[in-house]
Predict the structure.
Amino acid sequence: MTTVGGKKREKIDRLAELSAREDERGVSLWQDAFRRLRRNPAAVVGAVILAVFVLVAIVGPFLVPYSPTDTMGIREGVVRVGQGLIPGHSAEHWLGYDHQGRDVFSRMIVGARQTLLVGVVATMIGLAVGALIGGVAGAAAGLGGRWGRWVDGALMRFIDMLLALPSLLLAVSIAALLGPSLTTVMIAVGMVSVPVFARLLRGSMIAQSNSDYVLAATSLGVRKSKIALTHVLPNSLAPVIVQATLTLATAIIEAAALSFLGLGNPDSAIPEWGVMLADAQQWLGIRPALAIYPAVAIIITALGFTLLGEAMREALDPKLRK
Amino acid sequence: MTGEDVLVEVRDLKVHFPIKRGVLFDRTVGHVKAVDGVDLSIARGRTYGLVGESGCGKSTLGRALLQLTPPTAGAVSFDGVELTTLAPSKLRAMRRRMQMIFQDPMSSLDPRQNVESILTEGLQAHGIGGDRDGRRKIIAETLDQVGLPRWALSRYPHEFSGGQRQRIGIARALVLGPELIVADEPVSALDVSIQAQVVNLLDELQDNLGLTYLVIAHDLAVVRHISDTVGVMYLGALVEEAPSDRLYTEPLHPYTRALMSAVPVPDPDVEDRRERILIAGDLPSPADPPSGCRFHTRCPWAQPTRCADERPQLREIGGSRVACHWAEQIANGELRAHKVDVKITQPAGEGEEPSIVSAPTEPGSFV
Amino acid sequence: MALLDVEELSVTFARRGQRAVRAVDGVSFSVDAGEVVGLVGESGCGKSVTSLAIMGLLPRQPGLQVGGRAVFDGTDLLQLDDRSRRDIRGRDVAMIFQDPLSSLNPVVPIGLQVTEVLTRHRGMRGEKAAREAAQLLDRVGIPDPKRRLKEYPHQLSGGMRQRALIAMAVACQPRLLIADEPTTALDVTIQAQILELLKDLVRDSGTALVMITHDLGVVAGMCDTINVLYGGRVVETARRRPLFRQPRHPYTVGLLGSVPRLDAGRGERLNPIPGSVRDLLPWPDGCAFAPRCDRRVDACVGEPPELVLTHDGRSYRCVDPAPVAGLTPGEEVRAAAPGQAVPGSAPAQAVPGDPPAVPGLAAAPSEEETP
């Protein structure tokens, strides 16, 4: 009986210390969020799509069967645009030729790299400029007192001006200013997303500035600049990161739209999905598939970013944490 | 209070928050008088309890005392140093000696910091402990004092229970070796069985370290338990201040009486016997406090003369300080309570947080 | 037959990929007309989930399992379809929540929200409904009720909102009112007003009231019978005075020792319960409270403690209860399952189906089913 009792007591003590697993290190918020991200099927699907996309963008150009700029179809006389002859898929050319007799499959694969580049760089431009403006404004408004509010007011009026212009108009004017090129597209698309990032980070930082732990840090005697950098900013980043993921999707679509309008790289030799879509419009009557391939690719990629972004929003939401 | 070593002295402290309206240009349309003329002093090594209902300005008073919310007027002297006019860098250095414990231990801890980093931050800001090892030693001692295990250091706030989180909050304040601790509702977010642990811990720390407390709470039982002197606040001002035991045996201000009679006691015999003074209606808006005595609109003893037009000052009656014109007459039964007609108050412009009043409305600022 | 008989109520939440959580684990209690029954406990003890389960208000989600019975006047509320449940809800059974602001629709005037209830359950319309609504507001102590009817929830103070919510709850003269922490969000003076109002309602209309709270002080002044919950089970049931005078379950003892009392002196040491509410032992492994209990013995672990009925009509779930002066532990009756009760020594109250001389205990003997 005593041994049984002893065992029971052991069991109690073990259970009482359930919450005290000393061997384990703490789990930070990011680790926790990542853990929940992995459990979310939407996140997994999004991540797989993006992994394939990135992989293709990196290694694709080395694996393509044909050069994306080789106008072999015309050379071989298979493609005769004048007679409305653009052959579709075959064993050698999986997705057929385009109007200049180039292999569409190779162009799609190689185009992935350009598309990814446009999306990422454009988002980075938007994120960098927006976060800088929003971060300064947010820190100034949240912690800076009267002067801070003045700085914040000035910066936000500038952002309001950007926001007041229709995004496409803004992009078109930037593109017109710089002349059509891939860089132009990236800058234009990036600038359009600046106000979003700026307002988001600022709002989030102001909200965080009013929280008790900022007050606690102030009462500890920590400098305001340090509070802004070590407490307010890191805690405000979650929505911005989510937004960046979602912006990547729209950036790709917007870049495609600008290319479609003829503001992208005038040299269509280097394939990019948006440019391909733009080129294909002329041949919609003859071979609509030329438009469908890049369109579907853009949609799937955007979907991947959106799924991952939404899943991240969920994973980082403090209200849903357990 | 005279003769005792006074650590904190507050004189005629006022904190008014502007109420702003307007789309393009903010226009101040009035002030929320969160704290409107408070005098109090806290003796070294003692506990001053501040009670009152939400919106009475007790939290704002605590923050203004620590200069976390800039006071509109008045003086706060801490150990002889005037805080309201102190240069920012000097004030920051002073913060080492006066610390704060917050109500909600979750929101007052940065969720992205582990406990070690939470406790190190203050030490670094004040250059205490020298190197990493020195700081580690101080932190380890503090953990022992608040009853947290060593392994807590690598953990994050969300991994602890409410009571443990509050211990982390207390450790963060203690690690700097402060003299004054302002505890704003230190137990009200905790479960009943945990409240007692924290209350006992605060008591113990005071005994061992000679701390001075300003405990702000709405729970009279907690305040009574922990305080030497209790101040009762109503609508931005002190209405009564007395030694803890005296306040509870002989409340003089009508509001104190009502407050006391409203607190439920976990004892059926007491509950059945006691006489309740129900005060009618709600707290008037602090943006537009009643004239004269602020309590006269709800006071069962309000008189037609003086109460409505003359603001009573705190005056000494047998060891208590009371702000009531008729305190003696009420105490000896000369005046009888009467029924009060309820006047409804709109909760517009309420709130003691400046953020509620002047935070910019930010469409789309939240995801 | 009591007005409401809750028997072996259990609620389990199961999330995909996570351990199932048994929030309520075989809770039984009963409420008579005109009686105030308290469910007391700390966060996570299952008191709110119990009330939501009875009302059928638990969020529909996969993995939610509700077991047991909640018989209200002959009908099992848990078995009702949505339509008849909605009919009963508001008319016969009403609920008051902790946070009046989030329980009221912010964009609809108070008056409309009250008349809505009247129209839905009592078929009143137009002028008649408006008059009745004004009367209701007046009854719950809202001054100038005609004007208040047109106002929106944000224009009222917290206390007035709670009054408006109570007005909606009592609009159809329900026979059972469930109040889930009705005064927790309010200041003490307002709390006193609301409690007084609830007491009046019970006294005047004979409504049964289930009071869910963590505040022992509120319970002491209000309730006839009190159920103390811990870890999803009722650990002690007693009438008001005996419970406070002679708590038997160590958890009840601990709770009472933890609360600073207004009438106690400065600096009297409190006796807190060690550990936190998270340190639960799963019931099948023994007493959930055992890890925090200072009266813990070997018998606490291994299997859940049985419900013990005593002569004075109380019950507790503990193998080593706090002693009562003048009573040796052997005098108590261990009524595990009804058949196992020691013959001849079973107190009258332990017989199932006995008229509820001790309300709140009528369902007790059936409590010890498999968890």
User: Anything to note?
Assistant: The interface with chain C takes residues 4-5, 8-9, 11-12, 15-16, 18-19, 39 of chain A (CB under 8 Å). DSSP finds twelve helices and no strands in chain A. The longest helix of chain A spans residues 104-143. The two ends of chain A are 41 Å apart (CA to CA).
